[in-house]
Automatic annotation (TrEMBL):
The organism of origin for this protein: Marivirga aurantiaca
Comp. bias intervals (Basic and acidic residues): 258-267
PANTHER family listed in its UniProt record: DEHYDROGENASE/REDUCTASE SDR FAMILY MEMBER 7B (PTHR44196), SHORT-CHAIN DEHYDROGENASE-RELATED (PTHR44196:SF2)
UniProt keyword Translocase present: no
Gene Ontology molecular function, alphabetical: oxidoreductase activity
Segments for region (Disordered): 244-267
GO CC, alphabetical: membrane
Keyword hit for Oxidoreductase: yes
Protein name: SDR family oxidoreductase
Top-rank taxon, per record: Bacteria
Keywords, comma-separated and alphabetical: Oxidoreductase
Family per similarity comment: Belongs to the short-chain dehydrogenases/reductases (SDR) family.
InterPro entries for the chain: NAD(P)-bd_dom_sf, SDR_fam
């Protein structure tokens, strides 16, 4: 029960990896602040997490909106809650060729994946600094390790998150605050549906279990590790990518992610 007075804030906590992470925190007796766009989903998830005997606060916010991060921080402060662990999990992609995709949709992806993560990290890391301790888990991706045709903006946002996390972690040495990046690969979540990726060749492979990705991230966070690549296959893919020129890696990733109909047309 040593964590019974600690709070973890998790964005995108009602599904996928975020939901599985929240379950792990609740099991270890962390109280939760869970954030998502839909109130009904939050209520359902909260009732599940409370079965572990922990307190669960819900905040309904849309992190696609630029004011959402500051509003989340203000709500937490107004409720008198101190956040000990921040999990920036919420994220989304946009599938298709960059020249054809809607600009506003892609700018919203940047807002969600980058701006919201930076803002929430800024707000809560200052409080952690005053307290002299804290942990932050940022959802990166193996997509941040290689250029990604048909998901150019998404891969770009995850590259930002990866380097941002590593840089701030370095700045926080010897402060009692650690930052960890979790790098999953293609995972069995609602990500592909939200990104309109049902036609992508990448779905022909076996998708990873979100519970396993969450477990890997949770362990790395608690151990104070800098990053963890979830899954042997993903570790191998990143290792291979590191040995190839970026242009070759991009071409290879493009073949993996292209729409199935393009594959048939090229034969």
């Amino acid at each position: 029960m040593e964590n019974s007075k600690q709070y973890a804030l998790i964005t995108g906590a009602t599904s996928g990896i975020g939901y599985e992470l929240a379950k792990l925190f609740a099991k270890d007796q962390y109280n939760l602040v869970i954030v998502a766009r839909h109130e009904a989903d939050l209520k359902k998830a909260a009732s599940e997490f409370r079965k572990e005997g922990v307190k669960v606060e819900t905040i309904t916010k849309d992190l696609f909106k630029k004011e959402a991060a500051s509003e989340i921080y203000e709500e937490v402060k107004n409720r008198g809650i101190t956040i000990n662990v921040l999990v920036n999990n919420a994220g989304q992609g946009e599938f298709g060729k960059f020249i054809e995709n809607n600009l506003q949709d892609e700018l919203e992806i940047i807002q969600l994946n980058i701006v919201a993560t930076v803002a929430l990290t800024k707000y809560f890391i200052r409080d952690m600094m005053q307290a002299g301790e804290g942990k932050i888990l940022n959802l990166s991706s193996i997509a941040g390790k290689v250029p990604g045709p048909y998901q150019a903006v998404y891969h770009g946002t995850k590259a930002f998150i990866q380097f941002f996390t590593e840089a701030v972690r370095s700045e926080m040495k010897d402060t009692g605050i650690s930052l960890t990046a979790l790098l999953p690969g293609a995972t069995d979540t609602d990500f592909f549906n939200k990104a309109d990726m049902e036609s992508s060749k990448i779905l022909e492979q076996d998708l990873a279990d979100p519970a396993k990705a969450a477990e890997d991230g949770y362990k790395a966070l608690m151990n104070g590790e800098a990053m963890v690549i979830s899954g042997f296959k993903n570790k191998m893919q990143v290792a291979m990518g590191n040995m190839m020129p970026d242009n070759k890696s991009a071409d290879m990733m493009g073949k993996q992610q292209k729409p199935k109909e393009e594959e048939h047309q090229s034969k």
